[in-house]
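just leaving the lab so this will be short. below you get a single protein, a line of residues and a line of whole numbers that encode the local backbone shape. id like you to explain what the token line says about the fold, in plain words if possible. thanks a lot i owe you, the record is right below:

…
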Amino acid sequence: MEQREAAGRRRVGLCVLCGLPAAGKSTLARALRHRLPRRQRWDCALLTYDDLIPPEAFGPPAPEAGLAGQTPLLSRWKLYRHELLQYLEHFLQALINGDRLSAPPSRTESTWESFVACCEGQGLLSSQGPDAGACHYLTDVATSRPLYFILDDNFYYQSMRYEVYQLARKYSLSFCQLFLECPLEWCLQRNHLRSHPLPDQTIYLMARKIEMPDLENNAWEKNSLILKSFECTLEDNLQIIHLLANALENPVKQNEENTEQKEVDRAICAASTVHQADQTFRRIISQTMKDAKDENVRPSDMKSLAEELNKLKAEFLEDLRQGSHLKNKICQQNSDPVTSVTSSFQYEATNVVNKYILK
């Protein structure tokens, strides 16, 4: 019972490293892994996703593949990322409860073995217990020292990082983010120097999709630090330590769940609404142009009509992104924001085309 209470009181933090490939995340992660135990007297464990996710996540599925099976490449990668997070939660449960770490019943053997080996290599686990079986490991870390997990991956979508935040909130752990903002050209150059470089197109695509921490609008991202390059100055180092220490002193509270979940649900719903509206607007424009052609609108006017309709579409979508059409509509019971905004767009588009038909 004493071990359980001691483990339960131990301060644990989750630090997410995010940014483009070759931005310097792994360099920073290794530096933290080396410095935090020496300078702060904190235990520190590094989970590098590129090392833990098996090669089959990036290639054609093997016939015996269990977890990812025959799913598409990006879906397999997502499943493996989600699985790693489940293993981390499994470890946290054992740490908090003072229990042995046993293999979860649903797992990919190679990924689980990589995770266990990673933890053992950093002194978090030991398989040399008196009753340790093939899938049972004993936690082997001092309970008096704080423990930080450094998660090293691209985490280019906010939703990816929010999954880690949810885990911190579930167990009242500390949570923070380090975002490495590095020029795309530098990332491409450094990527070419790697032994196994990524295709340039992959980095270009990620650069277009990456979402920086939004400290103003996302309360859950308040413990974030955006670094301009991986070459951290002394001031940057002090800021990092301050961020980690502040997060450690202020773990995420479980009672924040409702507010935070509503905030994220609203953001997800808004993004979905914009996408659906965009597809609907395109269909309306296509049909409107066809109707105008059937009404013998002149070719020169057809061009002007198309430009005006596309401008109208852009304005409506921007309003949606800014929330102008979403207030008191999105994600509320018995409401359909797409239908509402579509009716408004249809009305405006009809007024536009009538100007050309009635000339």
Q: What stands out?
A: Confidence is low (pLDDT under 50) at residues 1-8, 60-73, 326-334. The chain has twelve helices and eight strands.
